[in-house]
Amino acid sequence: MKADLSRRSFLKAGAAGIAVKISLLPSATQAELIETPPRPGADWLSGGKPKYRLDAIAKVTGGKTFTRDYRARDLDGWPKEQAHAFMLHATRVDRVFDGVDLALLGDELKPDRLVLQEDLVADGVAMPAPWPGFYGDVFFVPKGQTARLLGQPVAMLIYHDFARYDAAKRKLRFNDKVVRYGAEGASTTPGPYGAARYVRIDGGNPDAEDRYSALKDTTIRAGFKGTQPQWPAPGEGDAMARGMAAAAEIEREIANAGDDVLVLRRSYSTQSADASAMEADNGNVWYERGSGVLHALIATQSPHEVAEMTAHMLAKSKFALGSIDLRIGYTVGYGTKDHALFPFFCVLAGLYGEGRPVRLANDRYEQFQTALKRHAFQMEKVMVIDRKTGKFRAMTGRYQNDGGGRENFSVSVGTVGATAAQSIYYLPKSDFSAAILSSRAVDAGSMRGYGTLQTMAATEMMVDEAAEALGLDPMEFRKRNALKSGMKNSQGAIPSGALRHDEILAKAEKHPLWANRQKRKAEFEAANPGKKYGVGYGHVHKDYGTGAEAALCALEFDASGRLKLSHVAHEIGTGATTSQAVMAAAILGKQPDETVFGKVRWPQMPLETTDEPYTLSQEEEDKRMANPRWTPSFTSPMSASNSVYYLGHATREAARALVELTIWPAARSLWSRGIGGGQMAPEAVRREDLRVVNGRITAAAMQPLPFAEVAAEAHRLGLVTGITVHSFNRWQWAEAEFELPGTGRRRFAIDALSVKYGDGAPSERKALMTQGGWHFVERAAVSYPPAQRNNAGVTYYAPMATLAEIVIDTGSGEVSLLSHHSILECGNQIVPELVSGQIQGGLAMGIGHALKEYLPLYEDGPGDGTWNWNRYELPTSRDVAVWKQTAEVLPPLSDTDPPKGMAEVVMIAVVPAIVNGVAHAIGKRFSTLPLTPERIKEALA
Fold first, then answer.
1. Which residues are in the Aldehyde oxidase/xanthine dehydrogenase second molybdopterin binding domain (predicted)?
2. I need a surface site. Which of 329, 454, 714, 725 has the fewest CB within 10 A?
């Protein structure tokens, strides 16, 4: 992220006076959109387990709809007439854009409004920019310039009615005469996006202080000469120079390696791929010209960013903007709807709709042409292994990813891929660098796996080859090198908690697929001439989190015990809404009666933020910490692996705080009733004895109490009856202390707190509830993880291993999966059925990446607008061994283990497992994905 500009500085430039309201769709809409799931039934939880997902009934009855399903008539307060828009796109970048020729449409089908880049310039509409260059420099290709990337829009056509819109779109599709091109022009594709390098040399053993590491010293950054990073010169000066000296030492060791070590050098490449989310990008926007209210319903994983950047876009424009009312609904995007440009095209459509709501929605051709892609990677890897011990001495990797014509999250994806490249292995010395390049390809961004799929899969392929070269069993080689608890990663950080790779390896080694692989291979091939059998193994762990995760959660109850849960989490298919409700119930002994998800208006939390959690210096952050309302970040977007751990932390902390401040004292009051201190007096009852058993609250043989009875007592006593918390994590949790009236100082793993007081609270205490009916308790002290923790890269991991049983048809070259077995460790499973669903879905995506999915990057790729699922092959049930797949999850070490974010790791291990299985089958190793039948046949020829 660029250090010289923040979101806050943008808003200060003129958008600060715009009110941003982000709301949920009301239940009274004609076609009900349920972003807030239906209230759980009275018996929804049984034995602590949910009977169904909160959105399940809506799903099976057709009531669960997505943002894409809505039109203006379905939205309360909107005009009933719906306008529609579509865009024309550039399919070449070598010639200048010379305008559009709409003569084919005739007078009858001409658009009611044509929007070009020149219109935006004239009207003062700016590009949204979380930081400079993130979304590029222009929406549409300016006349007289070349396109920055293939598929870049050149114009938007708006129609006031559907019939003319539909007819016009059909006429113009695939017509290469509509977009006019002039002479050859200079490239406008931006230069390389960034480069980072992570070097580490340990202190002689895993426990010693590192001689150099990113966490201890710094991450090394570089500029470019052409497409080549220009790294600092090695030396004894600043931290980067010392890091380059450490890198040079590793290079000398590799160059001077003797016969006592194996030096293995390999190149790998992976393809560009499409997320293929069933809901294509879409939005519906109505700009109410009289009031200046911009109403929007947009499919997005990052609603706060959409609202903030929309305010910036229009801050200096002719479009008076009084407020933004952004409604969010169910959506899915596997990351590609997180910080995507498409929502802002939807905003443009609404602005130029002449007071009408305008819907802009990609069809599948347009989705392939413009939606964010998975980054293609080129990788050069070196492994240095001691032949006697079979242990790594060093590993290096040079990674290049193609970000296409807009930067988006490309730098982040590249650096995350580099920090993950070590996979599950301890490396005494390592040097991993990422060069993030631009190109004329469709832009790439966030997508499930986030760079680690590419780099870890390559490492696992190479590990199998290294074991073979050393004459070691692949499992034995892994066991000798697997990270142990307390060891450091390649950035010099110690991962959180216990690392259980040895347990996974022991299980995998004993599994029949592995233990019987040679016998099974001989039997199968004897019985099936022309077929080759193999079993492969892949073992990885995936980080989860961004180093700046923030969340909000509120829990409150009335005197009858009716419990309400409100949360920033919204549903993108992971089951986040279900898991938050289950987590709260497990701690409180009471399932929520009402749930509100996707909540982003929090009047009880008057926090201030510069929203610079990565770039603010420690000195500046220390100054801001003096403000008890400041936080590094207000909230995070929804992503695949942040809900159960990071967003769930806010839920768990809110519930625990409610236990500390309310449940325990109220229960103690009830147990103490009567002469001599009641039933509690004869026992030594401590807070740590408190338990929830069968939905009732008990401790040390005290009478089990229903939640409603405890709630009534809490209200009678005027205790805290509502808790709102704000949490922040930078590879470590922020903690703060709060002075609470009548309670004293308490410390929680949060950085902000608001409370409500019960009916019996004294008037002076109730008078404190001035923030939307809540008392915002300014913290007395706070401890934020230091900014240096950003250099850790990651400290939270979830591991996954997969055994893949494959067969190859030597005639056709087709690879088929007979079965596969996976082993996952994810702490305490909140809802095992959701974990199972993520495993199955992730495996299918990984199998598609390994064997089928492929997009050419340039002129014959998706940017030409002719790609659809007739050309892009996805795996089907027959390809993923749907009836022959099994999985197991390691039991938690204790009931206090936190759940781990696991929705991304489950797609990775199967990729190298398949490639290693192919090597076992035919003795050929592959370094380019996907493994197509043509590549197999060529290798067999």
1. 508-593, 634-880
2. 329
